[in-house]
């Protein structure tokens, strides 16, 4: 019997060992970071890595939450609690004619590449974000098809003119984050050069993103010298990172993620609702739409599935948004009324047995699956034939945004709308106008009421908006509103920070400081 | 040997091409990415411009030829999400997955040999019970459950390990590797145990014993060598599974590997990146299969004779 070929076996084993050790050695050498935070820095864990930090994409949640008011800044900013606009890179603004607003800019501000911030730079940014072919998120979200006429009067004065009078132009411009005039105008950039209290120090794709304080910042120096973002998809891991001392702040948590005493719940501006696609029977019959509204037990959903972190809703915007109706009517829960309405429709020949799809998006909000199951169960009891269909974001969006897919049969679509801008116009245009991008139907009369309200200012605007919500509930019934939601973040005891309704979209680092 | 390798390479190439085309067409069945990348209020013109810019208006066949032509030129397209080259993103993510898979496999193989040999040598011993426990657990408990429970016990409860991450030194490797190792360790231990049981009762082992070889020498020099071949084949398959299936573990632990990149690309309808990831994974599995064959031949004289014939 020959002796075993030891050299060969050893060779094979050494090769595997060697590759593995070399491979792991690269990482071990770099062990100063646990979560990416250096000493004394603030460590934040987000659910996803921003795909880009391009400033004109800042209405994308994952991008905006990192860059807005941290790396870049707008001309004016909205106070999330009061809805009032305050100065940022503009110190004053006024409407100088029906179509024109004049902005006076702050002096002595420079971008982090050394370029001075002046009216030329502001005009450059607005043209780039709104009037270009870049296809910026902010253009579509905030300005629609409107192009702006931007003129430099002198170094610190800028005028912006719209084709039609726009009473909320400064609010719209609060979404345009100023970038250095050296930024490319032909393509989107991954990292912006702004004027904010921080600048990007290092972005290791897939692993972490580090910001350093901007030493030449025009405003007060923020509380942390550096900030490090990492991302973990799993909510319970994000929460555990804070409880375990690996991160200081973790966002987008669910009640069951286990942040314990470190969890902070706060009202965000999201509202959940079912959009009732009203172009096919039986949902084109108002009685069926009323029945859908009657079977949703908003109070119980809020108390049980949402753990009292939400409030029942009767309109699509929450308190704090201009146009919110404080006397909102919550549709009463009445399964017997729902059954009566369905039976009545059936007697009139409405095909109530047609299968209706109840469409929702996986992970849309915590306990989405349980929520739609409860609603489906109630709808079945009322006599409707409902099938749940969970979709991923892209597939669900094809149902949410016009043009809607055709010949799909009737469906109910779970939506969650967040009005980041703080004015009902942004909601009404998209969700309520009969041809709105996310609206299944409406009436000419209602369209007219919306248009009229949107042209008004101040208290008249507020009063006109308030009347639209009860009208929608009585005459249109496109939506079954469910709840105004809350968000949860976990915060280490060593950080002082009060989240507000804008935190989900704009987490201002300058408002965070070490507890002294 | 070269003839064997050439035949083996040819037969592996067909599934490789099938996988690439399969992913290409399946990805396109999942819908148009325009909704994800354009503002909700994008005009039909903006939508059309996006579709044209990204070549999504061509027929699927034209897109396929374009993709295959790109592969030949080593041009894998750009990410819709980040604008970066898809190949760069896939190549950047791949080492993290390989590190994880190799480390896991090394531990699984070493553990399986020790436990498997011990179990086979002493049936119903502690090692035998460990081996059946491991294989039962591996077969019945999903990865994500291990991962989350591991985080809760060892990171949150005991505070011994970081919850996640990749750059935290060896400690950050423990939970991901421990989660991944259970399945291969369970399966391999069973294979080694089974092969060793039959090897230890084979005539040549009895002969070795009768010639006065000690227990350790019998196990390591005689029985294990013959038991190694089936274990190696299974280990190869498990390795393929590890590279492919690190998705859950990478997502939970924020491990920036190819599994996580694939998931992100699927959710983002980022076709170019998804294709680059699949291509890279498929090619490495192809290479790995050939390495396994070579290893198998080196260890087993019967295969060696067959392939050199």
Automatic annotation (TrEMBL), chain A:
Return the Gene3D superfamilies for the record: Dipeptide-binding Protein, Domain 1 (3.90.76.10), Dipeptide-binding Protein, Domain 3 (3.10.105.10), Periplasmic binding protein-like II (3.40.190.10)
TM annotation in the entry: none
Q: Could you name the domain of life of the organism this protein comes from?
A: Bacteria
Give the range the annotation lists for the signal sequence: 1-25
Against InterPro entries, the record matches this protein to: Peptide/Ni-bd (IPR030678), SBP_5 (IPR039424), SBP_5_dom (IPR000914)
Q: Which Pfam families match?
A: SBP_bac_5 (PF00496)
Q: Which UniProt keywords apply?
A: Signal
Q: Show the CDD domains listed in the entry.
A: PBP2_NikA_DppA_OppA_like_12
Tell me which residues make up the Solute-binding protein family domain: 85-397
List the protein's name.
Answer: Peptide/nickel transport system substrate-binding protein
Q: What is the lineage of its organism?
A: Bacteria, Bacillati, Actinomycetota, Actinomycetes, Kineosporiales
From TrEMBL, chain B:
Please provide the record's keywords in A-Z order.
Cell membrane, Membrane, Transmembrane, Transmembrane helix, Transport
What's its membrane topology? Answer: Multi-pass membrane protein
Annotated transmembrane regions: 12-31, 100-121, 133-161, 226-253, 273-299
Q: Where is the ABC transmembrane type-1 domain?
A: 94-292
Q: Where is this protein found?
A: Cell membrane
What's a Pfam family in this record? BPD_transp_1
**Family assignment from sequence similarity:** Belongs to the binding-protein-dependent transport system permease family.
Could you tell me what this protein is called? Peptide/nickel transport system permease protein
Species assigned in the record: Kineosporia succinea
């Amino acid at each position: 019997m020959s002796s075993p070929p030891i050299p060969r076996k050893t060779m094979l084993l050494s090769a595997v060992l060697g590759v593995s050790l070399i491979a792991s050695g690269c990482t071990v050498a770099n062990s100063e970071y646990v979560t990416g935070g250096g000493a004394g820095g603030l460590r934040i864990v987000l659910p996803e890595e921003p795909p880009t930090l391009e400033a004109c994409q800042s209405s994308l949640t994952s991008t905006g939450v990192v860059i807005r008011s941290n790396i870049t800044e707008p001309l004016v900013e909205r106070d999330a609690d009061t809805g009032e606009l305050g100065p940022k890179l503009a110190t004053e603004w006024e409407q100088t004619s029906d179509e024109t607003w004049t902005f006076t800019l702050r002096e002595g501000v420079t971008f982090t590449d050394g370029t001075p911030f002046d009216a030329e730079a502001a005009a450059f940014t607005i043209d780039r974000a709104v009037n270009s072919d870049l296809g910026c998120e902010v253009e579509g979200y905030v300005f629609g098809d409107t192009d702006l006429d931007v003129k430099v009067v002198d170094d610190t004065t800028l005028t912006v003119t719209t084709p039609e009078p726009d009473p909320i132009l400064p609010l719209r411009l609060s979404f345009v984050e100023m970038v250095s005039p050296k930024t490319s105008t032909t393509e989107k950039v991954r990292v912006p050069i702004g004027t904010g209290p921080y600048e990007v120090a290092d972005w290791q794709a897939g692993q972490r993103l580090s910001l350093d304080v901007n030493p030449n910042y025009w405003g007060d120096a923020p509380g942390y010298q550096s900030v490090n973002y990492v991302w973990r998809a799993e909510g319970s891991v994000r929460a555990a990172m804070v409880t375990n001392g690996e991160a200081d702040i973790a966002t987008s948590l669910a009640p069951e993620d286990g942040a314990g005493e470190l969890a902070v719940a706060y009202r965000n501006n999201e509202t959940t609702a079912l959009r009732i696609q009203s172009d096919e029977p039986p949902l084109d019959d108002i009685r069926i739409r009323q029945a859908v509204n009657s079977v949703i037990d908003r109070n119980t959903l809020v108390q049980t599935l949402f753990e009292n972190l939400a409030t029942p809703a009767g309109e699509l915007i929450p308190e704090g948004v201009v146009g919110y109706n404080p006397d909102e009517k919550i549709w009463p829960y009445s399964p017997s009324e729902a059954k009566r309405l369905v039976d009545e429709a059936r007697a009139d020949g409405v095909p109530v047995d047609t299968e209706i799809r109840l469409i929702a998006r996986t992970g849309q909000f915590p306990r989405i699956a349980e929520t739609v199951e409860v609603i489906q169960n109630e709808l079945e009891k009322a006599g409707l034939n409902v099938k749940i269909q969970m979709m991923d974001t892209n597939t669900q969006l094809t149902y949410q945004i016009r043009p809607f897919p055709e010949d799909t049969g009737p469906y109910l679509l779970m939506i969650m709308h967040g009005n980041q801008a703080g004015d009902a116009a942004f909601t009404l245009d998209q969700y309520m106008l009969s041809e709105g991008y996310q609206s299944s139907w409406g009436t000419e009369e209602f369209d007219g009421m919306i248009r009229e309200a949107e042209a008004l200012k101040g208290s008249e605007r507020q009063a006109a908006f308030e009347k639209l919500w009860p009208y929608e509930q009585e005459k249109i019934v496109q939506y079954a509103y469910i709840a105004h939601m809350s968000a949860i973040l976990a915060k280490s005891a060593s950080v002082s920070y009060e989240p507000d309704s804008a935190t989900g979209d704009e987490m201002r680092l300058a408002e965070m400081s070490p507890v002294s | 040997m070269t003839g064997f390798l050439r035949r083996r390479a040819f037969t592996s190439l067909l599934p490789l091409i099938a996988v690439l085309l399969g992913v290409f067409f399946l990805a396109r069945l999942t819908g148009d990415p325009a909704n994800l990348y354009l503002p909700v209020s994008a005009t039909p013109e903006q939508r059309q411009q996006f579709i044209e810019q990204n070549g999504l208006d061509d027929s699927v066949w034209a897109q396929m030829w374009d993709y295959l032509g790109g592969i030949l030129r080593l041009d894998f397209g750009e990410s819709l999400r980040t604008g970066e080259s898809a190949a760069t993103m896939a190549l950047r993510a791949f080492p993290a997955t390989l590190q994880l898979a190799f480390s896991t496999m090394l531990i699984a193989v070493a553990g399986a040999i020790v436990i498997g040999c011990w179990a086979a040598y002493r049936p119903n011993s502690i090692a035998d019970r460990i081996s059946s426990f491991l294989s039962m657990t591996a077969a019945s408990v999903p990865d994500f459950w291990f991962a989350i429970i591991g985080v809760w016990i060892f990171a949150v409860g005991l505070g011994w390990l970081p919850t996640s991450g990749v750059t935290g030194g060896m400690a950050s490797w423990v939970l991901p590797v421990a989660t991944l190792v259970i399945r291969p360790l369970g399966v391999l231990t069973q294979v080694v145990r089974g092969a060793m049981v039959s090897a230890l009762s084979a005539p040549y082992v009895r002969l070795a014993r009768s010639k006065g070889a000690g227990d350790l020498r019998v196990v390591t020099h005689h029985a294990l060598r013959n038991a190694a071949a089936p274990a190696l084949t299974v280990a190869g398959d498990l390795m393929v599974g590890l590279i492919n299936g690190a998705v859950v573990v990478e997502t939970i632990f924020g491990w920036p590997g190819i599994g996580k990149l694939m998931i992100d690309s699927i959710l983002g309808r980022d076709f170019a990146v998804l294709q680059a990831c699949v291509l890279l994974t498929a090619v490495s599995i192809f290479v790995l299969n050939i390495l396994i064959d070579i290893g198998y031949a080196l260890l087993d004289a019967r295969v060696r004779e067959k392939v050199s014939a």
